[in-house]
Amino acid sequence: MKRVKIVAGLLWAFIGLIVIIILFPGLNSFSSSLSRAPFMKLNPRYTGGAVSKQLISERCTLDVRVPVFNGFLKERNTGFVQLDWRGTLPDKICDSIDYDEDGVKDFCIAIDRTEMKTTFESYNVQAKNIIISTPTSYGWAVRIGLLKVPKSKLP
Amino acid sequence: MSEAFILGLSSGSACLATCGIVMFPFFMAGSAGMKKIAWDLSVFLLTRLLVYFTLATLSWYFGQAIFGNPLVRTIVPGILYIMFAIMLVWYSISKNHNPVCPAKIVNTVNNHRIVPVFLGVVNSLGFCPALFIILTKGATQGTLVQSYLAFIAFFIGSSLWFIPLPLAGRIRKKEVLTKIGILATGLAGIIFMIKGLTNLIGGLING
Amino acid sequence: MDNILTIVGMQKSFGKSLLYSLPMFLISFMFLTGGRPDFSNPASGIALMVVFLFVNLLYFLMHYTGKTDRFRAVLFIIFALSLSYTLIHNMLEVRKSMSFNQADILECKIPFCHLVIPMMLLPAAFTKSIIFPGSIIGGFANISAMVVLWLGATLVLGRGFCSWGCFYGGWDDGFSRVRKRRAIKQISDLWKWMPFAVLLMVMLTAALSLTPTYCSWICPFKAVTEFEQVTSVESATKAGIFLSLFGGLVVVLPVMTRKRTQCSFLCPLGAISSLSNKITPFTVKIDKTACTECYKCVEVCPLFALSKEGIKEGEVSLFCSKCGKCIDACPKKAIHYGIRGIPAGTMKNFSRNLFLFVSFLFMAVFSSGPIINTLQGVLKLIF
Ligand code: SF4
Ligand code: SF4
User: Fold this and answer.
1) pLDDT tens digit string along B7-19?
2) What percent of chain B has pLDDT over 70?
3) Which of A39, A132, A134 sits opposite C129 (nearest CB)?
4) Atom of ligand 2 nearest to the CA of C324
5) Smallest Cα–Cα separation from B88: which of B120, B54, B48, B127?
6) C102 touching A, CB under 8 A?
7) How many whole angstroms from its chain centre is CA C38?
8) Which residue among A2, A36, C128, C300 has its CA within the 20 to 30 Å range from the CA of C211?
9) Which chain A residues touch C117 with a CB distance below 8 Å?
10) Closest chain C residue to B205 measured between Cα atoms?
């Protein structure tokens, strides 16, 4: 038994040696295999969610993303919708958005890029406030806080 | 809800750490058999749940009366959080040196059948700072249902520690778990202290 | 006569040490230069060769002197300092500030570090997603590469990662060496379980909030890497916490106690790595027949891994990071590197040589990038 333990220990140690030797040369291939694992994707709270529609104008596009409400085990009552303006943006941006695709505008957002000021007007009780409004490397991004209101309580 | 769960989970361990001495012998009672132990444990947990429902109702109704004024509503809970959180940190440190179980009195009860009920009541009313925090939380909830949910989350978090109680005899490093639990309680205290402070400062800044 | 003998002994061991260092020399040359050092940019070529030679000198000295910890610590501390330099330099160059802003978070450009790993576990299992605003693959410090490196190192070295791989550990390791004597001697045993409590809390809070709470609220190393811009009461509170934890646990307490207090009392990843010590091939063992119970090892261990009771039982606890400090301090060579399954007191040299090769290779290659980068920066400043 003692001998078996010694041999197993030595074998394990040599496997360890090999693991460390191949770790760095194989890093790219190991990490790209890991990146394909089903759980290796960023949570929508970080990516902002998938793009649900794209509004294209002459010099820039506006990506309206799918509202994000996800929580640990179930959806939360509060969430956000992210808007990304890309391309050559004018100094003043003003857009009315229908984020839930019901054919009615939910809020209006106005950005003054020179003053770095954003104003928000809500037409829907579920669209609450600006969480983030910031210049980005691709243009400008805004996150609007959303609140799930039960259908019975909607006006 | 998540905060209440974490509070329950962390303080439940301290609760077990101090009351384990009384509860281990009762629940483990080697001769009792798993079925009996499971029954007693269920009665114990159910009693705790009922007590928490009562507390949720009471705290919410009192909360409505006390925290009606918006200024009081932003400032007082912040102060209470900080106060109770400091007590929780102190509680976790001092309990470690001097464990006293509020349910100790159970040793004087002769009727075995009412012991789990008795333990459930005494344990949930063990007036520890964590209970004060959850009472404050219950009192400041918008609706009674939200207050119930907060107490249920607290109940689930704290009850998780009692589930393995019947197996306690078989867990080898009990004292290590107890130590980790005590420290986690202190950390929960610190979390609530910071929460209280940010609530208070934020409340004062935003009027 | 004695002198001659010592010299002869040293000469012999010099040749032997060179021989033992040869594999490291060759393999690190291959890993660092890819077999062909590039001198097209003189500053980077020189920095590369200096780092290569320096690293190999340290390894040679480990064999030549028989001491491990003092040479390990040199590289480990330089690694920590140069990583902070690299990160801060990168931040200042790209963003003109040490803090990252909301756009960096929205664009998922935050460098990933291994301390996030414990917080990723529950969300990865339940939501099948990663709760960190970094890059999954590609770019600086991407999530996949860091996870692979940590997994590999932890599988082989266990908590050895905390003395041979972590680019933060060098900070409190360094400060714990500043004073010759301990100003605080009595520390309750209870505190060494704190990382497990922190682990429990951060795993839960991270899962429930889907944010890496340790990074957002606690990590002391934010003070020497990058942190969120202070724009609100909340971000100011966070900055206050980072700075006070850094000051307290990474600077003041290590100086006063000569222990690595941040790693011993706070780090949740250290807790996970400790658990992995149960399965790794390399261990630290106590030969009870040689041990005279002088407890010098207990005194010097920076991670509270040894206790008098443990020594009596011949046990090293799971907190051991295989730093080698106790081994260097033991006058009877009773405590030594070992291999799982091989009885204490046997095959000491073989176990040490194999462990040193594996652990040092990991540290040398992992640390070389930031150190070369820092040296290059220094060279640019001078010339
Ligand atoms: S305990 Fe944490 S900070 Fe310290 S060396 Fe280990 S992983 Fe790094
Ligand atoms: S037991 Fe020895 S090798 Fe392990 S951490 Fe302590 S000093 Fe380092």
Assistant:
1) 777 777 666 655 6
2) 60
3) A39
4) 3
5) B127
6) yes
7) 29
8) A36
9) none
10) C233
Query: Would you say residue B102 has pLDDT above 70?
Result: no
Give yes or no for residue B204 having a pLDDT over 90: no
What ligand 1 atom has the least distance to the C-alpha of C169? 5
Domain count, chain B: 1
What pLDDT is recorded for position B127? 58
Chain C interface includes A123 (CB < 8 A): no
**C230-237: which pairs have CB atoms within 8 A and are 24 or more residues apart?**
C230/C99, C233/B198, C233/B201, C233/B202, C233/B205, C234/B198, C234/B202, C237/B194, C237/B197, C237/B198
Q: What amino acid is encoded at C142 in this protein?
A: N
Whether the predicted pLDDT of B37 surpasses 90: no
Chains that touch A (3 or more CB pairs under 8 A): C
Domains of chain C, by residue range, sit at 1-73+347-383, 98-280, 281-346
Domain that holds residue B51: 2-206
For chain C, the straight-line distance linking the first and the last C-alpha, in angstroms and rounded, comes to: 50
User: Which of B46, B29, B35, B20 shows the shortest CA–CA distance to B99?
Assistant: B20
**Residues of chain C numbered 179-218 and touching chain B (CB < 8 Å):** 190-191, 193-194, 196-198, 200-201, 204-205, 208-209, 217
Residue C4 has pLDDT above 50, yes or no: no
Q: Which of B164, B162, B134 is nearest to B149 (CA)?
A: B134
Quote ipTM for the complex.
0.90
The whole-number average pLDDT for the span B142-163 is 82
Q: Is the dihedral of CA A34, A39, A45, A47 positive or negative?
A: positive
Residue of B nearest to C209 (CA): B2
Q: Within 10 A of B119 (CB to CB), how many other CB atoms are there?
A: 25
Distance in Å, CA C338 to ligand 2 centroid = 13
3-state DSSP assignment of residue C176: coil
Q: Domain C281-346 adopts which CATH fold?
A: Alpha-Beta Plaits (3.30.70)
Any chain C CB within 8 A of the CB of B17? no
